Amino acid sequence: MRRWDVVAAYLQGELEQDEVLYCHAPPGYATIGADGRPRIWRIEKPIYGMAQAGRRWQRSLFPWLLGFGFTQCESDPCVFTMTK
What we know:
By secondary structure, this protein is an alpha+beta fold. 18% of the residues lie in helices and 14% in strands.
């Protein structure tokens, strides 16, 4: 049996095609623009702390595992096996 730990896994997912998310600037960055209005940032990839980050990672990982030859367990869809 083997297992993997993917570093920064939640950052590896992709947002859905029509999904648009915004957030406030992180600490250390300007929060007020030159025009005096608060700055907000558009998020292009999932980041830690987003409610959707885990699901976006899952949607990227599962097709890869299936395409690589793994079989998804029927009783627990988050478990994959491969028999050589």
